[in-house]
């Protein structure tokens, strides 16, 4: 393992004596920045800020607009309440600019309806189109004179369908989630709504999501040419991807075959130019984008832990120059880009391990950074920690988050999942990283990886366990962590890693997981014919159903391996996934194991309600402090919690403790 010589970041120690420690409340209410989009004329940028609120238990959205020269952005429009997708995440969107660059359109959720809004310079934002059904998507013609949008079932039809299902019962088919409350499994605008599966895995949408779509057209100006063809948002902003076109018709294409990567530019006349620069042949080359006004491409290259190196290649040159390394959210196909490309700069929604989200301008000449918008400035000033980048064997990356200035080994909690941007909660936002550091506990965040395909899912889990063990051993030798006080936390994929590690190792003093676990119940409530779930699971785990393939199930599911687990484990689960884990929890309790399960109502895979997130953060912090350092929070309302935990630690039987009088 290689430990970087320099820290990624550290707070100003001068302010440390007077600062307020970072707590769970701070992490929950961090503002996120998304969808930075540059106007067609290249002079302005619009972006969206999402702000969770513990007071309202909701997330609100706000649009801002600013100049690409880096001047301070201004409030543009209220974006309404955040819409939550089927996994529990805030749904993103990219705004659509008017061709004259003096306005933009977006969808907003206000007063129970998703409608189309239009902001114009000098006039502000107004609701442009509101229907009896929510608007699903829209497109603007290239000349800006006509608009087309799509709606599904009306809100009245949806409410009628929900009432009918409630009063008459629900026919169980491939779309029904029997682990979610039939009467409604998620809170939307203050009320519980019904959802249905949309495919073989766990994507969900509101009931009647698959009703026939209705497409409508509006002439915004007379004599306009109506839109034709498939509904697609028009934009002149240079796009990023594996195949991108320039204004003159040249197309840049990234291709990967086996272990070889190529970048080729094809001119409008058919002539081709192959990039010979080494970066163009790297398997880490993600996407490319044309630089406005130049015959040059920007190359975005994976640098680990959601960081990207940005290079510039002038078409035809045998070399490329590295401009900068950016940091922030993961690059995902269903999420807006985190960096927008202007003529002379990148404007990026950036966050770093110890720096919460902000908008920065990065000059393409000289790579000078300037902060454009900083919604979390007060929190940033309070962060007091060290973030040390690590290079692990096999070209894997990790970050060690430690108390600043600590000279002795500390307890440590490990999470093997994406270490993206600001290290506040890890994937799933449930591990309170900075509050742990405030209490003298380090956090080791290891980027995910997969084992060889022939090894199956258990091969990936076992590889993760060995990588974690080796990293802890090396860090202990360096005097950075205490190998006898190691915790492990998991969410989604990493919850599987955590349980596998507990089943095959005695190295962990405490564990937490935040999502449901594979079990026979998990299979039988999801494998209804025609859904495709069984085939997906077979591809993932290479196993059949529990009756026909019991040997594989004993490998895959921890319910068959209770005797091997002695580590205290806290499970904080969404109610949509808790039934999968009921057998595992009950068997642990009946076997006298130190285990506890907390279930949160009306939650999906990612817990989206701010108050639930705070509760998860706080309880995970208390759990690791208790088992790794022996500390207890003296708050009177937590006395029953610690009575249970002391009972577990003493090795007492797992019968219910007396319920305290209220």
Short description:
With 662 residues, this protein is an alpha+beta fold.
What secondary-structure arrangement, pairings included, does this model have?
Elements: E1 2-3, H1 24-28, E2 32-38, E3 44-53, E4 58-67, E5 74-81, E6 96-97, E7 103-110, E8 113-120, E9 124-129, E10 133-140, E11 146-154, H2 155-168, E12 186-188, E13 191-193, E14 195-197, E15 204-206, E16 214-219, E17 243-245, E18 251-257, E19 260-266, E20 272-274, E21 285-290, E22 296-304, E23 307-314, E24 321-327, E25 339-341, E26 345-352, E27 355-363, E28 369-373, H3 377-382, E29 386-392, E30 396-402, E31 410-416, H4 433-438, E32 442-446, H5 456-477, E33 481-490, H6 493-504, E34 510-513, H7 520-524, H8 533-541, H9 550-556, E35 569-574, H10 578-590, E36 595-600, H11 610-629, H12 639-649
Parallel strand pairs: 31-32, 31-33, 33-34, 34-35, 35-36
Antiparallel strand pairs: 1-29, 2-3, 3-4, 4-5, 6-7, 7-8, 8-9, 10-11, 11-16, 12-13, 14-15, 17-18, 18-19, 19-20, 21-22, 22-23, 23-24, 25-26, 26-27, 27-28, 29-30, 30-32
Helix pairs in contact: 5-6
